[in-house]
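ingest -> validate -> predict -> emit
validate: passed (alphabet ok, no gaps, 153 aa)
predict: started
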Amino acid sequence: MHLIRTNNPKKIALLNEPVQNLHHSLYPERFKAYEFQGVLSYFEKVINEENHHFIVCVNNEMNLGYIWFEEILRSETAFSNPSHYLYVHQISVNEEYRGMGIGKLLFSSILELAEEKSINRIGLDYWVKNDSAKMIYEKMGFKLEKEITYLNL
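emit:
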């Protein structure tokens, strides 16, 4: 297994199916069912943005999963100090390859970039009903820092 950086929106759109289907199954009122053309169109717009990174895990020319993260640089404001961090938008491993260390391997790419750029903070979010994500991220050392709530009317 090895990691490759990609700017191929079709590859990412295909790999997005498991995570999109999971989000739709957990929150059907909020997330659409996976639809390749719509997802492809979205990734065609963001994949070449300067601070976005897409890394794919490949084994024998099979794409097993991906991580999409962004390097964020925020200026100081009247309310907050400047910050420079990496933000994970999505990580997904195809179901038949889960439990094989692929997620850890994908995450190593973000840790590598963080070290290379002297970035000491990585952020991400996950949906409350996604218990497996919560367990994985807690095991990796992520700490809850902010909660967002909604009032549905």
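The chain has a mean pLDDT of 94.
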